[in-house]
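Cross-posted from the bioinformatics board.
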Amino acid sequence: EAGVAQSPRYKIIEKRQSVAFWCNPISGHATLYWYQQILGQGPKLLIQFQNNGVVDDSQLPKDRFSAERLKGVDSTLKIQPAKLEDSAVYLCASSPGSEGEQYFGPGTRLTVT
Amino acid sequence: SQQGEEDPQALSIQEGENATMNCSYKTSINNLQWYRQNSGRGLVHLILIRSNEREKHSGRLRVTLDTSKKSSSLLITASRAADTASYFCATVTNQAGTALIFGKGTTLSVSS
């Protein structure tokens, strides 16, 4: 079974530029999550999708972050404009939809200079 | 805000020794999960314990849950160098749906 795919793996941008991350979840997983992990901390949920609908985006900085999950499969997360404090690893995870374990991708390491 | 707090923040042991990590959380949970993260990699699920369970085993892992104290512990027996990683507890609460709320993690170093 293929795992969660993310791209790119690394990205370096200057502040005020825009960036987009892509995630392809495990086939058949209804629920998709984006997490932000700042160095030395645990991941923090940004947004949760159930199929192509948003379940929770309460911690998403909506003035600069946006996310979509077209057709309930893969998803993109965009930051525009980026700030220095957005430097982090962005993790995508998926789950079959139950309360159980989540399957994480390798993450995208973003550096904003 | 983070729900869980792991203790200790860092742990160094020798191969063959046991490693114990603790996690405390603040609000009522549906279940508690432990994840491992190797340096620069994604997270890997280790074990899930439900709120009505007290202990669970998986291979060299033993997890306990005390809902009255809002705490959990992860025991890794007979540790190996390959166990070197960061370990996170994460909770699923009724309020958060199925999203995980992570602690800050314990960094485990196992030397040979």
